């Protein structure tokens, strides 16, 4: 039986509608400032998608482009931290070489860290506190929950240990009683590990890396990869070889991608509400 | 061939001597304040051991016992945060029921968090920043490094997802390129997972839980358990059934325990040095 395709766009729209309705009902306008440094074309595309989607549901989005220099970025962050009209601050990663990401991200006011990548917000996950969860990781959790995938006691394997997905997702899955294995480029005998997984999340940025012979029958596959191959977007999973073996797959595009933006909107609204809780 | 016993006390003494020599040479006296709430007998023992060991190497240790009430604890923390003569603040866990540990720990000035349990310091580990690592987890890393155990590419299984060991250790092992699986009470088929592990760390607080039939030949076993059984201290590993199958084991007592205190001393000195870096 062919795997069911998970419609990430549909799930994302559900959350976006929730945020839009809240904004409309309460007559508010939460505001995000995106800091874009450098000329990475993919970053430009993502910033663009986030802006369009957020604006459509009533979130104001400003894009700032400071010069490529640590002090200028930190000065801008300081200014935005102190500006009470700004509810969320987002630094688009990756930063150009030579600028340490932790140094920059950790200077954002953690209550405005709508990307959920501030070390404080990453650390909170380990305490089971998901008040500002990393967007993509949170989006994956929401997909799994919406599809009623059992997490408690499941063997989950994550490929890729980045700060956007692997690291925060591992905490969120442990919070939901999954048994989690984090694999990466130095992992030996990867197939032996993935073949025992009930759920596999692939976030390594290598087109078609996970193939049908690496998975067990009926597994749930979440594809976080976005790779441009001959002008086409391809995931990290080799769709053709897994489609008759897996039970569920997120497609690329239309799977995890839309969820990231929806969770950004959700985090922004949460940040706004918390910042105004004493009004 | 019987497993080699790792002498945690000997490794710990090496680090304690390093800290003592630095303190002596520089004529300084770093100071820790321990906050002890409630009447847990094990907590009293740990606080006592930490105090004696630290004092012996020239660290001043004060123990404060606020009333069992969140506001009183937070007031005390605030006072200690503002007291520049205090370099380290340590809240002995567990706290009595009804007092949320994250709420308390996250109010310690993170630069004085010598236990390494502040969400900010837990989150930093995910960025590869181990400037204030959780003491017990760090102690385990130091044991493995001192015994020249290869971590890169190794399959490491952690049993137990507590904030002292499982969660921070997971990040530190991933930082060293190990493939890490975190298991806990909801894990299914635990034996199938532990049998594939090169290294197993057990931190669940159940005497003799890990038995010889659950491990593979030659594995490295780290026992974090301290259980009182008929007046004797016992670890989480069933020593008799693993001793001829494992290659290395940390004994209880005398394995991980002394390392926790040594890493506390090391963190305290690091905190002191950073706090005085502009003198």
Key terms:
homodimer, 279 residues, alpha/beta, Rossmann fold, 2 domains, 6-stranded parallel beta sheet, 3-stranded parallel beta sheet, 11 strands
Can you describe what's shown?
The structure is a homodimer of 279-residue chains. By secondary structure, the first copy, chain A, is an alpha/beta fold. Chain A folds into two domains: 27-110, Rossmann fold; 135-257, 3-Layer(aba) Sandwich (Rossmann fold), CATH 3.40.50. Chain A contains ten helices and eleven strands. Chain A has helices at 8-26, 41-56, 70-82, 101-105, 119-126, 135-146, 166-175, 190-194, 239-242, 256-275; strands at residues 4-5, 31-35, 60-64, 88-91, 155-159, 179-183, 199-202, 220-223, 227-229, 232-234, 248-249. In chain A, the strands form three sheets. Chain A has a six-stranded parallel beta sheet. The first copy, chain A, is globular and about 55 Å long. The N and C termini of chain A lie far apart (55 Å). The model of chain A has no long low-confidence stretch (mean pLDDT 97).
């Amino acid at each position: 039986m062919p795997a069911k395709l998970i419609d990430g766009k549909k799930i994302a729209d559900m959350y976006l509608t929730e945020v839009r309705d809240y904004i409309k009902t309460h007559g508010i306008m939460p505001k995000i400032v995106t800091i874009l440094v450098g000329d990475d074309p993919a970053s430009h595309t993502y910033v663009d998608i986030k802006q369009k989607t957020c604006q459509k549901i009533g979130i104001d989005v400003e894009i700032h482009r400071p010069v490529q220099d640590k002090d200028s970025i930190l000065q801008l962050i300081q200014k935005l931290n102190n500006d009470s009209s700004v509810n969320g601050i987002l630094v688009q990663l990756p930063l150009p070489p030579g600028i340490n990401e932790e140094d920059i991200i950790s200077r954002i006011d953690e209550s405005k860290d709508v990307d959920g990548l501030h070390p404080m917000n990453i650390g909170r996950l380990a305490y089971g506190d998901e008040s500002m969860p990393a967007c993509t990781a949170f989006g994956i959790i929401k997909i799994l929950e919406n599809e009623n995938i059992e997490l408690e006691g499941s063997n989950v394997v994550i490929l890729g240990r980045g700060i956007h997905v692997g690291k925060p997702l591992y905490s969120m899955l442990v919070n939901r009683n999954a048994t989690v294995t984090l694999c990466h480029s130095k992992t030996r005998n990867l197939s032996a590990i993935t073949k025992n997984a009930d759920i596999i999340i692939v976030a390594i940025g290598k087109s078609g890396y996970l193939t049908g012979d690496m998975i067990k029958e009926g597994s749930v596959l979440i594809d976080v990869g976005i790779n441009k191959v001959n002008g086409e977007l391809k995931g990290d999973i080799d769709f053709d070889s897994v489609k008759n073996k897996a039970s569920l797959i997120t497609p690329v595009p239309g799977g995890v991608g839309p969820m990231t933006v929806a969770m950004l909107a959700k985090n922004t609204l949460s940040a706004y509400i918390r910042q105004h809780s004493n009004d």
